[in-house]
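Thread: quick sanity check before group meeting

JM: Hey all, I'm pulling together slides for Thursday and realized we never actually wrote out the predicted structure for the chain we discussed last week. Dropping the sequence here so it's in one place. If anyone has concerns about the input, flag it before I start.
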Amino acid sequence: MRSYGQFCGLARALDLIGDRWSMLIIRDLFSGPLRFGDLRAGLPGIPTNILTNRLHHLIDGGVVTRDADPGTGRAVVRYRLTDHGAELTGPLSALGLWGASTMTTPYEGEVVTDRSLAAALLAAHTGRRHRQRIFQVEVADATAHARTVGTSVEVGAGPTADPDLVVTGDGLRELLAHTLSPARALRDKRIQITGPRALLDEFTEAFHVPLAGSN
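JM (edit): ok, ran it. Output follows.
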């Protein structure tokens, strides 16, 4: 990998994670360790050799580690973030929110994946104090869930057992931007829920993705 050759924190960070696909690999590892095949499946369009190259670079930089789980039979190799790599959760979540501030609908050919949706929920968490809740969100073919308790949140890709509330519908972006109220979203059938109506208010208090130009 080419270096910027500057003794600068930002330059060093870009040396480590600034190559194409690297930040998305880290994003997908936010929700837990993954096998090589799982990473490749969750990053449509990434060539196998590029994924291998990026993982080696992130391992060498102390961002990712490669572990073998003994289990039964052949050991299963998984990639996970190191403690140093996990410190990127805040900065990359902030960068994701900045990027999302001008996003309303996908461009042609863009997809939402389970792990990108999980990372979006992680970034969107407001940190407000709540009772323990499990929210599941469904967007197109993607599903993710978030468990909130107190001021913390844990996210996961895919569905979860016994969510307290399931949220879906084409009004989700506006709902998260707080430009569409829960009451109107339900009245206009822009949002569909499975679970108690009152929990939709809690959901919008717990998660917020601002849109540029909106209050």
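AS: nice. The radius of gyration is 18 Å. The mean pLDDT is 95.
JM: adding both to the slides.
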